[in-house]
Amino acid sequence: MLLLAASFLTGIVIFQQLNVLPSLLWALLLPFALFSLLFSKKYQFVGLCICGFLWALIRADITLSENLDAALESKEVVVEGVVASMPRQGERSLRFDFDVSRLSFDDKEYASPGRIRLSWYGQTSQLIPGESRTFTVKLKRPHGNLNPGGFDYEAWLFQQRIRAVGYVRAEHIQQELESPTHRPRYALARFRQTVTAHLQTVLTGLEHTGIIMALAVGERQSLNNHDWAVLRATGTNHLLAISGLHIGLVAGLGLLFFSWLWSMSAWLCLRLPARQAGLISGFLLALLYSALAGFAIPTQRALIMLTVFVVGSLLKRSISPAYLLATALIAVLLWDPFAVMSVGFWLSFAAVALLIYGMSGRLAVRSWWWRWGWAQCLLAVGLLPFLLFMFFQVSLIAPLANIIAVPWMSFLVVPLVLFSTLVSFLFNDLGVVLFTITDWFIAVLWHTLEFMAALPMAQWTQHAPPVWALLCGVVGTVWLIAPKGIPLRWIGVIWLLPLLIVVPDRPLKGQFEMTLLDVGQGLSAAIITRNHALVYDVGVSLGDNFDMGRQVVVPFLQYRGLSTLDVVVVSHGDNDHIGGLNSVIEAIDVQRLLTSVPQKIDNFKAEHCAQQSWTWDGVYFEILHPESASTHWQGNNASCVLRISAGDDSVLLTGDIEQAAELSLVARLRDDLSTDILVAAHHGSKTSSTIAFVDTVQAKIVLFPVGYRNRWNFPATKIVDRFTATGAQVYDTAQEGAISLLLGDTINDGFNPKSFRDTSRYYWH
């Protein structure tokens, strides 16, 4: 059964690697696949693989057919529909999903994009899931920042079936609002909203509200960056994702309690044995808890396995753990073939598979404490390849942290959270007292985890291993943790070595690599030489818990295996250039910080960038502007202008300089200002890239760091035309994603910009 499930999964995974959606005519192969599945044992695995491929194709075709009409992007359109999710209040807006039933523009109806995601700025009153509403909105097709090592927002939106994003311009007030629809999906969202709102009131003033909310209803938006850093460093993230541990605990407690309660009545026991009554009651409690958690993928997997186990127990049939896992895998993929795009899918199923595989042959011959410790070591070793491939880091203290944290959470915190939640609805004051006690128990564990997270070498961070190294690592872990009787298990260690020792290529001496990162409407570029690295600007900050330093710059550096930055240059003080600085400083060892606004940086000893120059590995770096720290330049015109040269090749990074600074550079440097690669000033604004500057620089390639359909319409058409008139090739990050170039004396094939959106394109992009 497990091999059949793996075959179905393989077909879906193969489909997910395609960069273009195949024709739906391929679905004509489905009858042949079903025939081989039903009538040929020899080819049933191939048949299931084809079925998985075609099932994903059919679902993908349906989802992509709901894309917003490209002609409607950034237009004010009217949408009618239903609030589809529990709204979340952010720092600046209310965010919610909306199921569109009708879309119109200029009194003409267009095809509905299905589900869209909306932000409502300045709105504080809550919407109710299932409510019918009409809004005037501005929409865009799904589009995200694409960078090596970064989060693929477009993939996430695709998995969620969201085919447009935008914001509310106005609401059309209806005289009589319809009652919220009672469809199960909307009713569940309303139920979760009610519980969440109640808990937010009851938990006011408690220190660990975010953890309680995560355990009670699966809402983790109250957790801050520090909380996540502690959880990552200790390998305890899974404790706040409602999954098998939590579902099994609730079902087990329900089984014990209701079996005992049922056994108190002989009349009831004569009609239904106490154990069966307990099984059914425990399952219903687990189902309710899963609903509170919103049926996330780890929850789905656990609930399906529990369902099969309960049914088998009621029918008095023995079901192997492997059969349970295989059934859950097939059921999840039938319900949602795009679950494979989720990290949680792989970690959840891999963890259970590891425990089933690694604990076989050991359970009956060891004490419980040995089995518990061995289980933690199994997970630490077995998940190592996945964690390094997905996150470029792994916790070294995870086994010890989990040995302490899992029992504490399972037998104290989670039961208290759920019991306190129930009591708080019946007796509010008593609920507050119980939650206060719960908060104290969480605090005891949390202080322990914080101490462990602060230990030297609490986690290992490295480059992203290539896919072939990941596969070697999986083989190594399977061999290493194999049950007794498998010979030469120590050879598994050798198979793990490629994960650690295969490092990314670095430029040769006299060469450098520049990557203009896709940070939306902002700027950040990474320059790597043979032995050194520099980052120029760090993107925008959009709130306390979201900035491009954390979302883009740090993941890129970790992906490349860079734990140290020799220099960070912050061109000037605008948010879209300096916003991500704190996140970079917290995550990366920064040696020097150069900027035109040292007074704006209070958590690092910054130097003024003026008149700085140095050489790394045969590559020359020079600040061309401002000419001194005492000059009159202010604002955009104070931007640090950095030139990087290797032999005859050069790059010019200009920040946000405008006409005055450009003309000053032209007057001072004249022909010395010419360059091969230019990162255009001020994102291609009309206030920059003057005719004199463009003619003097004579760039061969011009790069525009801009956001997709940004409100300023950067780069300005006039500026793009000005550069193309000189023969320059132009690229922008909104269309290309991150853009990389390798420059230097020994590069003989000319300039060859690599677009990450092209090289890493999938069919949903």
TrEMBL record:
Primary localization class, coarse: membrane
Pfam family, one: Competence
Keywords carried by this UniProt record: Cell membrane, Membrane, Transmembrane, Transmembrane helix
Domain Metallo-beta-lactamase per the UniProt entry, residue ranges: 521-682
Bilayer topology annotation: Multi-pass membrane protein
Cellular-component GO terms for this entry: plasma membrane
Compartment(s) of residence: Cell membrane
Classification via Gene3D superfamilies: Ribonuclease Z/Hydroxyacylglutathione hydrolase-like
Chain ranges passing through the membrane: 239-262, 282-311, 323-356, 368-392, 404-427, 433-455, 467-482, 488-504
InterPro entries per record: ComA-like_MBL (IPR035681), ComEC_N (IPR004477), Competence_ComEC/Rec2 (IPR004797), Competence_DNA_uptake (IPR052159), DUF4131 (IPR025405), Metallo-B-lactamas (IPR001279), RibonucZ/Hydroxyglut_hydro (IPR036866)
Example GO biological process: establishment of competence for transformation
Presence of the UniProt keyword Cell membrane in the record: yes
Transmembrane as UniProt keyword: yes
Protein name: DNA internalization-related competence protein ComEC/Rec2
